Amino acid sequence: MNLEAFKLTLDQAGPPLVSLPLKALWHDAKGDWTGAHDLLQDDNTSEGAWVHAYLHRKEGDASNAAYWYRRAGKPVASGTLEDEWDAMAEELLIGQQ
Q1: Does pLDDT of 88 surpass 80?
Q2: Do the beta carbons of residue 58 and residue 67 sit within 8 Å?
Q3: Confidence at residue 77, expressed as pLDDT on a 0 to 100 scale
Q4: Which of 42, 45, 44, 67 is nearest to 54 (CA)?
Q5: pLDDT value at 97 more than 80
Q6: What domains appear along the chain, each with residue ranges and CATH number?
Q7: SS3 of 17, please?
Q8: What is the C-alpha to C-alpha distance for residues 22 and 41, in angstroms, rounded to an integer?
Q9: Distance between CA 13 and CA 7 in Å, rounded?
Q10: Cβ pair 2, 91 in contact under 8 A
Q11: Three state DSSP letters for 23-34
């Protein structure tokens, strides 16, 4: 699945069969920040930490976001949230192939 196909699933009632971090991004894109965050509470992967960082950045909690970026081994994002979401989704989708 590529980014365009993933975004098309946002019209569906439920997420596609993808990794937990991608499901969290899907829920976030649907406006369900809490659902996205809840999915990642017990995810100890670097991918989950990256999405967790994005969610806290979106929330406005910069210090908590910085912690999760460190756990993910990623630099703190400075671009738009939309660009970060797209970059994460694209990279995570490539990693699933």
Answers
A1: yes
A2: no
A3: 96
A4: 67
A5: no
A6: 18-96 (1.25.40)
A7: coil
A8: 14
A9: 13
A10: no
A11: HHHHHHHCCCHH
Residue 74 neighbours by CB under 8 Å, 6+ apart: 50, 53
- Tell me the residue type at 50: W
In angstroms, what CA-CA distances link 37 with 4, 22, 94? 23, 12, 22
Which DSSP string do the residues of 37-86 spell out, in sequence order?
HHHHTT--SHHHHHHHHHHHHHHT-HHHHHHHHHHHT-PPP-S-HHHHHH
Q: What does residue 39 show for φ and ψ, rounded to 5 degrees?
A: -60, -30
Residue-wise pLDDT tens digits, 60-71: 999 999 999 999
Neighbour count for residue 5 (Cβ, 10 Å):
10
| Angle between the N-to-C axes of helices 46-59 and 33-40, in degrees from 0 to 180, rounded to the nearest 10 | 150
In this predicted structure, what is the pLDDT of residue 96? 85
